[in-house]
Amino acid sequence: MRHRVKTKSFHRPKEQREHLFVNLACALIENGRIETTLPKAKALRPFIEKLITLAKKQDIPSRRLLNARLKMNKKAADKLFKEIAPLYAERNGGYTRIYKLDKKRRGDDAQMAIIELVDYPFED
Fold first, then answer.
1. pLDDT at res. 124
2. Domain residue extents for the chain
3. Family assignment (predicted)?
4. 3-state SS string over 78-121?
5. What CATH number was assigned to the domain covering residues 14-117?
6. The dihedral formed by the CA atoms of 53, 97, 24 and 38, expressed in degrees to the nearest 10
């Protein structure tokens, strides 16, 4: 039974799962859009939205918490703090968007999705 269990385990230990989310979040911060499986995208959404909300405070304790949650990935933390958080200063949530893709992953037939930051200026 999964009573009161909010997150999926992805059949990984806690440390691996945390690092998975940190790596996905850093990739999303650096690129603005990533392609991953649908369950991972759905699990990543609350993680990244809490980081953006924390970065919007623009103070030193928030920056320290951000560095701790991103496992000291300073490049991603700086970009989130300096570039991405000011974009969403007026927005009260809903910083990400998930698109389901028609294609499935070839190896295991997993449903694929794109998760992206809303109103992010992409270089196309």
1. 59
2. 14-117
3. Belongs to the bacterial ribosomal protein bL17 family.
4. HHHHHHHHHHCCCCCCCCEEEEEEEEECCCCCCEEEEEEECCCC
5. 3.90.1030.10
6. 140
